[in-house]
Specification:
This protein is of the alpha+beta class. 34% of the residues lie in helices and 22% in strands. It has helices at 28-43, 49-61, 110-132, 149-156; strands at 5-6, 9-10, 14-17, 67-73, 79-89, 94-103, 141-143. It has a five-stranded mixed beta sheet with strand order 3-4-5-6-7, with helices on both faces. The relative contact order is 0.13.
Length: 178
């Protein structure tokens, strides 16, 4: 059976939930960890990419039930994307934060399916876990993105609530450099 493509879009991208202890699929963990670090290096320059990677991967290795990492894998077994998400909370409310989604080229609806996977994961695994411990269930998903806000809004119902901007400490207003 051949690989299905439509106008250069790979429609055979599979989502695989990472489990470092899986005897077969555990080999994907270091590949995705490297992708997470490269993503952080490129898109989250205010943070140390090693620490970003550790913040995602250490809970995965610790079997934290509130951490989800997905690999997007083509039919030839190549990792062509990833998604990372975790449940966060403020002591009262909990929410799902999708901190990274990245796809290499046209992967069909794999990113959309990753977001849907996160929602199902919350409904089927996370919320029963939280409620059994007397905590509030997750009712909100937050995505961290640096672009395509309109596409996220149209495709998934996200709405822009605020923007995060950065500047070096000691930065002066334009015209006052000195």
């Amino acid at each position: 059976m051949g690989q299905v493509k439509q106008k250069g879009v790979d429609l055979n991208v599979h989502l695989i939930r990472l489990d470092p202890y899986d005897p077969n699929l555990g080999v994907l963990v270091p590949i995705v960890a490297k992708r997470i670090m490269e993503f952080a290096r490129e898109h989250v320059q205010e943070m140390d990419p090693v620490l970003v990677t550790q913040a995602i991967m250490v809970p995965l290795w610790n079997r934290d039930p509130l951490t989800l990492v997905l690999a997007m894998v083509d039919t030839e077994g190549h990792v062509v994307g990833h998604a990372a998400a975790a449940i966060q909370g403020d002591g009262v409310n909990n929410w799902l934060t999708v901190s990274q989604t990245q796809a290499d080229g046209a992967v069909g609806d794999a990113v959309k399916r990753a977001i849907q996977y996160g929602s199902r994961w919350v409904d089927e695994e996370v919320n029963p876990f939280l409620v059994a411990r007397g905590q509030r269930p997750v009712v909100t998903m937050v995505i961290v993105t640096g672009r395509n806000e309109k596409a996220w809004e149209r495709g998934f119902g996200f709405k822009l609530e605020r923007r995060v901007m950065s500047a070096p400490i000691g930065a002066r207003p334009k015209g006052e450099e000195g």
